């Protein structure tokens, strides 16, 4: 069994050695330009077209939770990966807990008004702010996949009402579920905090726009943990100026790194992190990949299979 590996920034030697320990009979190599030797599986992030083109692989594993980069390449170069080759994404591999931590930190900060107290500190202002009602501080999560469900469970633990919206119906115990375009408005109208964990597809690009943000409860909060292109950035600024959005925390941006002249940097209502809300944890990811390859070799289909027509 031959496995080829490519990632533009990960330590290839560490990944290959660690995977070799998990799959001792496999032959694993770092792909280099011009390498057209046989391979059964490919582990990739932003792969060159030539790496995959023409190969009849048993599976391709995207080294990240999102697959928008490789699907974007396929739209431009459909010949890069044959239609019948299964494409898998990392469903969780430790990212769910990281997303929980990030979301809980910001939601609690907004709920307890800690961010506002920090702003008062810069003015030497000693002033108590009225508390929010927990039962009325409803968290709305766009996306009910593995990461969306993980974040929902993490926030439910703190006693907040949690609701999720997804493209198709989901059964989530203890969480109010909405689905489809016809229920999106009702979902938004009851949400005080909106957390975006949608997949990045042509259909979801620009979904966080002024029309959507204006449907949230007054003085709502926005947390974007998914992808930068989901948000129309100038619409967020306009919504904050209009008092529709009270504050936002953004981990992803249309352009990364964020331009030093971007107005988000200086805006007091916007918190920024450099796309690190959840990062790939190598050993958890390798455990999943090794287990999945063993399943494929046994004729089984692992979890994490991407539906290319849906984009996730």
From TrEMBL:
InterPro entries from the UniProt entry: D-isomer_DH_NAD-bd (IPR006140), NAD(P)-bd_dom_sf (IPR036291)
SUPFAM superfamilies assigned to the protein according to its UniProt record, in alphabetical order: NAD(P)-binding Rossmann-fold domains
Record's keyword terms, sorted: Cytoplasm, NAD, NADP, Oxidoreductase, Pyruvate
Broad class of enzyme this protein falls into: oxidoreductase
Pfam families, per database record: 2-Hacid_dh_C (PF02826)
Residue ranges of domain D-isomer specific 2-hydroxyacid dehydrogenase NAD-binding in the record: 106-277
Molecular-function GO term, any one: NAD binding
EC number(s) reported in the record: 1.1.1.79, 1.1.1.81
PANTHER family xrefs: 2-HACID_DH_C DOMAIN-CONTAINING PROTEIN (PTHR43333), D-ISOMER SPECIFIC 2-HYDROXYACID DEHYDROGENASE NAD-BINDING DOMAIN-CONTAINING PROTEIN (PTHR43333:SF1)
Name listed for the protein in its UniProt record: Bifunctional glyoxylate/hydroxypyruvate reductase A
Originating species: Erwinia typographi
